[in-house]
What we know:
By secondary structure, this protein is of the alpha/beta class. 36% of the residues lie in helices and 22% in strands. The chain contains 7 helices and 7 strands; from the N terminus they run ααβαβαββαβαβαβ. Helix 2 runs parallel beside helix 3. S-adenosylmethionine binds next to helix 1 and helix 2.
Amino acid sequence: xxxxxxxxxxxxxxxxxxxxxxxxxxxxxxxxxxxxxxxxxxxxxxxxxxxxxxxxxxxxxxxxxxxxxxxxxxxxxxxxxxxxxxxxxxxxxxxxxxxxxxxxxxxxxxxxxxxxxxxxxxxxxxxxxxxxxxxxxxxxxxxxxxxxxxxxxxxxxxxxxxxxxxxxxxxxxxxxxxxxxxxxxxxxxxxxxxxxxxxxxxxxxxxxxxxxxxxxxxxxxxxxx
Length: 225
Ligand SMILES: C[S@@+](CC[C@H](N)C(=O)[O-])C[C@H]1O[C@@H](n2cnc3c(N)ncnc32)[C@H](O)[C@@H]1O
């Protein structure tokens, strides 16, 4: 199934808003660290419901572009948005519709690893960002997070599972410096008391604590020299 087919279906089922609710727990901390200033041009790669693009436009007065390969996601994101600083567009991670060095910063939450060729996507980001620009790449699906390993079974789009070293190496290979890399804990997802386990998703309370509070979201920040 293509990105378009898979995520158009998600959008039609309202799963875009569900993702927004869950991802916001950690995405907001990554967004809060971005060096975005008034008037900056910022890309949200794989925007989904568009919450990150809206947040950066509303809090930092940036011009934001939410790009997504699913026309239905873009349609929904547009319908949730009421500001003139944010635009949504359909596009693919492999060929970004922006001129060289035309953007100040880029953000992506739980989307980067769906790229057909993640190295190509990094080269594209490197191309469109200006010197000193940053790419804040946030993912919950990564090698060290053992609780994410079976996610591919329920998604038809091929996903790339890199470890923390792989992210740093690929960013450097594409021409970024590494600004920072760490994990952001999700402290908001409710974790039931031990006697309620096993649950549908977790055998033990310890494993659920590890998934959310320890592994949370991996953030890798690339800086253009
Ligand atoms: C799991 S959702 C995350 C959405 C949003 N960033 C969030 O945090 O809720 C991934 C999004 O990336 C988009 N996407 C995945 N692969 C893509 C690609 N190769 N090109 C463009 N968009 C893509 C999907 O359509 C989907 O909306």
